[in-house]
Design brief:
Layout (H helix, E strand, L loop, with lengths): L2 H9 L3 H13 L4 H21 L5 H18 L12 E7 L7 H12 L2 E5 L6 H11 L3 E5 L7 H12 L7 E5 L5 H7 L3 E3 L2 H12 L1
Parallel strand pairs: 1-2, 1-3, 3-4, 4-5
């Protein structure tokens, strides 16, 4: 029984195995933070680059992310919130009028596995709801997703409302989704654009470094 085994089970997306190994290691007195860092997150650190290189696909990555989350659920209650190192806080949501969430959830899972605290607002999120979440959670990054060309402009509206509320300078805004391009991100005044989940995580790390 080793961290390596948990790591491999995460990569292969074997949720039952991850749960079983995590429980055994907890029972054996392993350090919960080490289980997270050397087992669960180590697994996702392999998955991210493979996904980016086209060696793994969305369904497999989702399975790995779910397996990792299942392990985290077992370990999290054992550690005080203060011990969990967070690299930053992200509010993420799919914009108003858009109900697509697979890509957004994948981004959220990848960010969580990279150590971000993620507040996932869900789908069909209005500019006002994003602003409310910024006021409530005080995040480092607001991440918006859109899959329809018709909903892309809601990203621009959200940035405008953040400006009106005097919050724009307090957060970095990143956008993504099938119809979104770097040009569009620049045009609406976003801080960054990511073509996929692995890049989104890297982008956020760079923006708040």
């Amino acid at each position: 029984m080793s961290y390596e085994e948990i790591c491999r089970a995460v990569v292969s997306g074997n949720e039952a195995k991850v749960k079983e190994l995590t429980k055994s290691m907890v029972d054996a007195g392993s350090d919960p933070l080490e289980i997270i860092n050397q087992g669960l997150i180590a697994g996702m650190n392999i998955v991210g680059p493979r996904f980016k290189n086209g060696e793994m696909f969305v369904p497999e990555v989702l399975m790995s992310a779910r397996a990792m989350s299942a392990g985290l659920d077992i370990v999290k209650p054992l550690i005080a919130d203060t011990d969990l190192p967070s690299v930053g806080k992200v509010v993420i949501g799919t914009v108003k009028g858009d109900l697509h969430d697979i890509g957004k959830n994948l981004v959220a899972m990848m960010m969580e596995s990279a150590g971000f605290t993620v507040i996932n607002l869900g789908v069909d999120i209005s500019p006002e709801k994003f602003v409310q979440a910024v006021k409530e959670h005080n995040p480092d990054v607001v991440a918006m997703s859109a899959l329809l060309t018709t909903t892309m402009l809601s990203m621009k509206d959200t940035i405008e409302v953040l400006k009106e509320e005097g919050l724009r300078d307090k957060v970095k805004v990143v956008v993504g989704g099938a119809p979104i391009s770097k040009d569009f991100a620049d045009e609406i005044g976003a801080d960054g654009f990511a073509p996929d989940a692995a890049s989104a995580t890297e982008l956020c790390k760079q923006l708040i470094a």
